[in-house]
């Protein structure tokens, strides 16, 4: 299996928060890509590299970033032998290709013909999350159907449904549909779906079909990777692996909360997410 970490965003909300923070305590975060933010003892994205490597989950990790941050990512990646950096060649948020196009770019550039785990570069999970358990679950899915894909879900609060993609599933945890940021009254489900998806190698050709269909659509329809998940659900079997929750570093308060957890509450950094 290969990993593609999506890191081509520009972190506009977080950078706005840092610029407007009058305390000056977070000035050192200015101009840093979200995946490279210090979280606990290392960069946010380093937690993923360490866990993916220690669990033997993948044999190579591809990070898709942009031209603005490419140098910083290459400097960060120099300490890892299994990480490769790819730029989407954009320099501003308005130029961005969108997450699905970035995934397609990595698949084509690195000639990926294997199962792919796609991870949002600004996301981390709670301490009980285990890549080894995810690998087991994906093996079970593959035994049922070689086309099968796997997504994660955790229970969100009623008032949070409008912030996330919400999965509706049957009793076997096969996904029936994903509703994008629905009102609580529009779905009985509270299954939030974070950006961590395993796409089977047989599903990868559908990237081209999706992007061709959305060629003239606004960037928003190609940006959120969940849009591709929604599109793939009627076409391939997609199953759920349940987790307890996540950290989503979108703005300064969420970054502070995440960093504090990793500095003060993380029990075992070496086994985290393994």
List the SSEs and their pairings:
Blueprint lengths: L1 E5 L5 H9 L17 E2 L2 E2 H11 L5 E6 L4 H8 L5 E5 L11 H11 L6 E5 L2 E3 L5 H14 L4 E7 L9 E5 L5 E6 L10 E2 L3 E4 L6 H8 L6 H4 L2 H7 L5 E5 L3 E3 L3 H13 L10
Parallel strand pairs: 1-4, 1-6, 4-5, 8-13
Antiparallel strand pairs: 2-3, 6-12, 7-14, 8-11, 8-12, 9-10, 9-11
Alpha-beta classification: alpha/beta
Number of helices: 9
Strand count, sense and barrel status of the largest sheet are: 10 strands, mixed
Number of strands: 14
Stretches with pLDDT under 50, minimum 5 residues:
none
Coarse shape: globular
Which whole number gives the mean pLDDT? 96
Order of helices and strands: EHEEHEHEHEEHEEEEEHHHEEH
Q: In whole angstroms, how far apart are the ends?
A: 16 Å
Radius of gyration: 18 Å
**DSSP strand content:** 15-25%
What share of the residues lie within helices? 25-40%
Keywords:
10-stranded mixed beta sheet, alpha/beta, two-stranded antiparallel sheet, 9 helices, globular, 274 residues
Describe what you observe in this structure:
A hairpin with a 2-residue loop joins strand 2 and strand 3. By secondary structure, the chain is an alpha/beta fold. The model has no long low-confidence stretch (mean pLDDT 96). The protein is built from 9 helices and 14 strands.
